[in-house]
Amino acid sequence: MGITLKIETDRPAMVTSYLNGILQQMKLCKHFFLNDWKIEQEFELGAKINNIVPVKNMKTAEATKLFENIYRDVNFALANEFALLCEKIGVDFIEAMEAANTQPYCHLLFPGIVGGRITKDPYLLIEEAENINVNLRMTVLARKINDGMLRHTLRLVRNALRRCGRTFRRAKVSVFGVSYRPNIKEAEGSLTKELVDMLHKRGVRVRVYDPFFTPTELKELGYPVERNLTKTVQGVDCLIIAVGHDKFKRLNLKRIKFQVRKPAAIVDMGRVITPARAEKEGFMYLGVGKGV
């Protein structure tokens, strides 16, 4: 029995992501096909299923996928906890991370706001464990740490504004990035909307920009937008890099500095802006894990 997929969308990146997810799940679910079905080795779209990993039953397959995502969540939490420490002790986490990762058994991740399925899967396992009187302490703690990164973003913004002689109330802020992770066009699972809502509740006027989305698409997602980047940064007090798209590394700060309200700040949760470059152009720079 063959498997044929027909996906109708104008978003090729989403198709690739969707197919990769299916392939990974099928690798873990071979048992489902063993009795009566034959797994075709090729999809109509040319994708291949390689290195299939057989497991005993569906429960094991489901546990495997949950463990994978929770493993990443715990590692994100460790990176975020180290990043918060570095901010207090005057160490740049990224520099320390890159040095530590030269060692064969160290694989520290980038810190920041964690979105996507990783934010949901831990709670599924936590609830299941609680039903059988098992306390997943590390899983719970990791979620608590990662959930707290939005509040930490607000603290960094407050500190940055204060250093520029401003307060939250009536401040103007541009938030960059609405995807749930860098370098893709997919907003489902993103925490940017929650960040924008938290800023609004504190009296901040917000504009949102993402190079992967048109202004119309952002508006349909419920974000306050302008028609282009120039309008998005015009007169703002702070730029928040919420998602570390590589495209943000090429932001023309020499030009942007003439459009913002001076002095202005950059709060970099994606660590895509070089601090020295931002400061050279007159911005107050605060980044997650950047000790000062």
Keywords:
Rossmann fold; alpha/beta; 8% strand; five-stranded parallel sheet; 292 residues; globular; 5 strands; N-(1-d-carboxylethyl)-l-norvaline Dehydrogenase, domain 2; single chain; 3 domains; 11 helices
Describe it for me?
The protein has 3 domains: 1-55, no CATH class; 58-147, Orthogonal Bundle (N-(1-d-carboxylethyl)-l-norvaline Dehydrogenase, domain 2); 153-287, Rossmann fold (3-Layer(aba) Sandwich), CATH 3.40.50.720. 43% of the residues lie in helices and 8% in strands. It has 11 helices and 5 strands. The protein has helices at residues 12-28, 58-89, 93-100, 121-131, 137-147, 149-163, 192-201, 215-220, 229-233, 253-256, 275-280, and strands spanning 172-176, 205-209, 238-241, 265-268, 284-287. The chain has a 5-stranded parallel β-sheet with strand order 2-1-3-4-5. Strand 1, helix 7 (192-201) and strand 2 form a beta-alpha-beta unit. Helix 2 (58-89) packs across helix 4, helix 2 (58-89) crosses helix 5 and helix 6 packs across helix 7. It is globular and about 60 Å long.
